[in-house]
Design goal:
The chain has about 230 residues and is an alpha+beta fold. The protein is built from five helices and five strands.
Length: about 230
């Protein structure tokens, strides 16, 4: 069924946006491939569209047209607007990594991370040897870090395809639980979230808190704690 609404957000560089409609309970995602106008979408522009639902990703708008243009000829080429925008987006994506992630800029952050990983690994192995941790923590840590790396890969793929992104709080939560080494390798290999300073600051905070809490748990029985005088 055809519905009406207005464009409330349009990201030109990535070729996607959102539509608000009184006939729908949530904002609807639409991609530039679904746009049928002769010019790029604009915020507050009135449009008509077909609503679909894909899995658990929420509603999506298809066949999006400027208002009063629904009767236009369906023979209009599907990629008339999408092709230039998509090429611009692809050029932007190709240029961005080469500009931001040079080896010289990533090298200084490698040594602190690798050193912290050695400390973290030593705490895990030592905790198991001393009986402070179950041996199940070792395979669990490995699986958690694989899952964290996959979460970063999925988020980067979604960013390039204009799909729903993984919340940054979720990525930080995985790091706080112990997936921060996997996140670091994702930064280096995928070049994802590797130069956003605010994100990096929170990332190092979660890594430090996790290692400090682990060290406290493993070493607490052997720490010299002065007795309280009564």
């Amino acid at each position: 069924m055809t519905k009406q609404g207005a464009v409330v957000r349009w990201v030109e560089a990535k070729g996607f946006g959102f539509i608000q409609s009184p006939q729908s309970n949530a904002q609807l995602f639409f991609h530039v491939r679904d746009w049928r106008g002769t010019a790029a979408p604009a915020v507050n522009q009135r449009v008509s569209f077909e609503e679909i639902h894909v899995g658990s990703k929420g509603p999506r708008a298809m066949d999006v047209r400027p208002e009063n243009d629904r009767a236009a000829s369906p023979a209009q080429p599907r990629q008339a607007v999408a092709r230039p925008t998509t090429q611009h987006s692809q050029q932007h994506q190709r240029k961005t990594p080469s500009r931001r992630a040079s080896p010289s800029r990533q090298a200084p952050a490698a040594w602190p991370a690798l050193l912290l990983m050695l400390v973290w690994t030593g705490l895990l192995v030592g905790g198991v040897a001393l009986g402070r941790l179950s041996w199940l923590f070792l395979p669990a840590a490995f699986i958690l870090n694989l899952g964290t790396f996959f979460a970063y890969w999925q988020d980067k793929y979604a960013a390039t395809q204009g799909q729903w992104r993984t919340a940054e709080d979720t990525l930080h939560g995985l790091g706080l639980l112990g997936g921060w080494p996997g996140a670091w390798f994702a930064h280096q290999i995928l070049r994802h979230k590797s130069t956003k300073q605010a994100f990096r600051s929170v990332y190092w905070g979660t890594a430090s808190i996790h290692v400090a809490a682990l060290a406290l748990w493993v070493l607490l029985p052997w720490l010299p704690i002065p007795a309280l005088n009564h």
